[in-house]
Specification:
about 250 residues, 10 helices, single chain, two-stranded antiparallel sheet, mainly alpha
Length: about 250
């Protein structure tokens, strides 16, 4: 879901988000988000970047590939929306305000995902994974009763956290970071043991590692959990055929 790749939350400005009662300001999750954005914009510079390698946040996004002028089959570099830290103190302040918001309003999913996205842009992959795990733990507590900007209640039918996890899983695969891809998949298995998709994801990691037999076992386990899933069936069929052709 591309909207998670935008740092700016869909909320009013800091002054508009601040409600007043009896002459005293009332703290809201939107205030935390606004203060986070204010300092984030001072600490992180966004712009078009040209480099020979792709950072993790650019994987899976729209990227212009530069071909070698002599060998067209050789990639010379990439052009993409890049991010650079220009003031680490401002970033520390930004995350401080967001952490305060998460602590006070633990069911505001936009705060977790905004933090994870900012950490991704800062190339703090460890921090991003920790934030996603924190959100998974909270979903165990709130049973999927999440809120969004302006304290809007999210429908359980629209599983935003699941889609974000799947998006980052694919990002790790494209970056060939299989260790973190497996870590995220197993994290999903731990906190959502009834979700066949995370079991399937672990199987995908083993296929990328060319361990077909172990990958097949996870696909078969996932199919038992979700017998009508066509993607899992297709994975099993593909791997069984590949094993036969060895």
């Amino acid at each position: 879901m591309k909207r998670f790749l935008f740092i700016v939350f869909l909320c009013a400005g800091a002054l508009n988000a601040l409600a007043w009662g009896g002459g005293r300001p009332i703290w809201t999750g939107d205030v935390s988000a606004d203060l986070f954005n204010e300092h984030l914009n001072k600490g992180l510079h966004a712009g078009i970047t040209i480099s020979v390698d792709l950072p993790l946040y650019a994987c899976g996004e729209e990227v212009m590939i530069l071909k070698d002028s002599i060998d067209e089959n050789k990639i010379a570099g990439y052009v993409y929306n890049g991010y650079a830290i220009v003031d680490s103190a401002e970033l520390d302040t930004a995350f401080m305000w967001l952490d305060k918001g998460i602590e006070k309003f633990p069911n505001r999913l936009d705060l977790y995902l905004g933090k994870a996205t900012a950490q991704l842009y800062c190339l703090n992959v460890e921090g991003m994974l920790q934030t996603l795990e924190l959100a998974m733990k909270q979903e165990q507590k709130n049973k999927g009763k999440w809120m969004w900007t302006n304290d809007e209640k999210l429908s359980k039918e629209y599983d935003i956290l699941f889609e974000r996890i799947q998006e980052d899983f694919k990002r790790f695969l494209e970056a060939e970071d299989l260790d973190n891809a497996e870590r995220l998949a197993r994290m999903g298995m731990k906190y959502f043991p009834k979700r066949a998709e995370y079991v399937n994801n672990v199987g995908v990691v083993y296929i990328y590692r060319e361990n077909l037999e172990k990958g097949l076992k996870y696909f078969q386990q996932a199919l038992k959990m979700k017998p009508d899933d066509e993607l899992i069936k297709a994975n099993i069929e593909y791997i069984e055929q590949a094993i036969e052709n060895l």
